[in-house]
Design a protein that fits this description.
The chain is of the alpha+beta class. It is built from six helices and 18 strands. α3 packs antiparallel against α4, α4 runs antiparallel to α5 and α4 runs antiparallel to α6.
């Protein structure tokens, strides 16, 4: 106030009139001027008493700054869906085995695979193939903010009891399969060990076994050939004898005919002697013919017999040769098989053991899975209640009382603050630095000095803006590590980074004041005193600005803001 009065006096002295006329006007003007000055002084004084300058403290930070194309958009909070994930389906284990040695030759196992399968089949058939739980009551609704552990819904006691009973039965069935698999594995191990010894032993005489088999078959062929040869010889002898007998019979018949002719042509009275000779000769020839005919008949029967025997021997020989041919192939295969088994006896043993071990492990896994399903059921459903697994605001409720739950049934959806996105339109000329995964900075009016990091996650197809005739791209960015600071539809600015500096000192742009082209900041000392300091600025991202000279990391600078007392 004193300062204003001094300036008024200086002004009055300067404009003081030099003559009477000027004095009249001067007095009138001075009165008016004094009145205005007094009013102004009163107002200034009043304002000075009601307003006081306040400051926000900002720290000089060292870090990275980035700049680029900036576009505006709205925050979109993602959603997460809580579903009923419990597997309450009937037990259908993957184990499939039978009792036995597994390497040729089985061992009795008491309860065979078929019997076990039948037992399990009966047990499974008693369980529902499409199990479900009935909802008795839903406790939440859309728009409600909930915390992790909040009760979402209640299930009917009957449906919970039924499903749990079936899950317990599944555990019993799976345990039975596992125990039977253990027994089968032990049996297979014993059988495999015996087979290992057998295979190793066979390998030492597989060649001699082959030679012995072939020798026996060859001997059978030789015997058949000899038998056929004897049959052929007997037949040949009989045929030769028949031929001789038939020739002799022909001769005797001729002798008989001659003798009968002589006897008939000889006078018995005059030539009795010659008649007797002719008659006797005829009688002897007749006896001989009869004898030869009988012998020939017998020889023909014998030849028929020998011919049949020969055919039988030929068949026997053919069969023996066939047996030799096929037997040699079989024996060779058996020899090679035994040699292979002997050579790979250990590997064969290992395969059987590993197979049985795998089946046992699978049965064990099935059993543990059945137990896990029961344990998860008991941990998720407590006193018929299913509770929320996350906190947030419910956006949708997908179930109602009377509905049935099966695996993967959606229950509710909530805000998901891990999926905060902003979609903006970017002109084609500014798309040079906009690529999937590229860095962006996000600023919001509600957090004026804070820069949120993000990245480009999706770029839409190009579209023409009919009002400007420019090509625009819809670009979606995802904001990182926002916690729960942001909310749906907050206005934000997205800067697609095209230029940046690293490890520089910076302060908010708003703490900088300029006068005659020089930049200043107000600095608060440790003792609370405030001073004005000249600084040299550099790169700016629009929110913060680089300090090249004049400040040190950690110093406190002040940003002016008016406040009424």
């Amino acid at each position: 106030m004193k300062r204003i009065r001094e300036k008024v006096l200086q002004f009055i002295e300067k404009v003081k009139p030099k003559n009477k006329k000027q004095k009249i006007f001067w007095l009138a003007g001075t009165a008016i001027a004094l009145f205005l000055i007094i009013i102004t002084a009163v107002i200034v004084s009043a304002v000075g008493k009601s307003e006081e300058v306040t400051y926000k403290e900002k720290t000089v930070v060292k870090g990275d700054l980035a700049a680029g194309v900036t576009e505006s958009g709205n925050v979109d909070v993602g959603t997460t869906v809580q579903s009923f994930e419990l597997d309450i389906s009937a037990f259908t284990g993957e184990t499939s085995f039978s009792f036995g040695g597994g390497m040729g030759g089985g061992m009795g196992g008491g309860m065979g695979g078929d019997m076990l399968s039948g037992m399990l089949g009966q047990s499974q058939s008693s369980s529902s193939s499409d199990r479900s739980l009935e909802i008795e009551e839903v406790y939440v609704e859309a728009g409600e903010e909930i915390a992790e552990g909040t009760q979402l819904l209640k299930l009917t006691a009957e449906s919970v009891e039924n499903i749990r009973s079936e899950l317990v039965s599944d555990v019993t069935d799976a345990e039975l399969v596992y125990q039977q698999a253990l027994t089968a594995e032990k049996q297979s191990l014993t059988s495999a060990e015996g087979q290992l010894k057998t295979n190793s032993l066979y390998g030492t005489y597989s060649e001699s076994e082959y030679a012995q088999t072939v020798s026996k078959l060859t001997e059978a062929v030789t015997e058949a050939e000899e038998a056929l040869e004897k049959a052929q010889e007997a037949l040949t002898e009989a045929e030769t004898e028949l031929s001789e007998k038939e020739a002799l019979l022909s001769e005797e018949k001729q002798v008989l005919a001659n003798a009968e002719y002589s006897a008939a042509g000889t006078d018995k009275e005059t030539e009795l002697y010659w008649w007797i000779i002719a008659y006797q000769t005829a009688e002897d020839s007749r006896d001989m013919v009869e004898t030869l005919e009988e012998e020939i008949e017998k020889l023909r029967d014998t030849i028929d017999t020998y011919t049949q025997e020969k055919e039988e021997k030929e068949t026997a020989l053919a069969l023996a040769r066939k047996a030799l041919e096929s037997g040699e192939i079989t024996a060779r295969g058996q020899r090679d098989k035994r040699a292979f088994n002997a050579e790979n006896a250990q590997e064969i043993y290992d395969v059987v053991v590993e197979q049985r071990a795998y089946e046992t492990e699978t049965a064990k896994a099935d059993y543990e899975e059945a137990k896990t399903k029961l344990d998860e059921f008991d941990s998720v459903i407590v006193d018929q209640i299913i509770s929320a697994t996350e906190s947030g605001v419910i956006t949708d409720v997908y179930v109602a009382a009377g509905d049935y739950l099966t695996r993967n049934t959606d229950l509710v959806s909530l805000n998901n603050y891990d999926e905060m996105t902003i979609t903006v339109s970017v002109e084609e000329d500014d798309m040079d630095t906009v690529v999937p995964g590229s860095k962006v900075n996000v600023t919001l009016a509600a957090f004026e000095d804070e820069v949120f990091a993000g990245s480009v996650t999706e770029i839409g197809d190009a579209e023409i803006d009919s009002s400007t005739n420019k090509t625009l791209y819809s670009v979606t960015v995802t904001i990182e590590n926002t916690g729960k600071l942001l909310y749906q539809d907050m206005t934000a600015e997205v800067t697609f980074v095209s230029d940046e500096v690293s490890e520089v000192l910076y302060v908010p742009v708003r703490v900088i004041t300029q006068e005659d082209g020089v930049s200043y900041v107000k600095v608060k000392a440790a003792n609370g005193s405030i001073s004005t300091r000249e600084v040299v600025t550099g790169f700016s991202d629009g929110v913060n600005i680089e300090i090249k000279e004049g400040l040190s990391e950690g110093e406190i600078v002040l940003q002016e803001s008016g406040g009424k007392k």
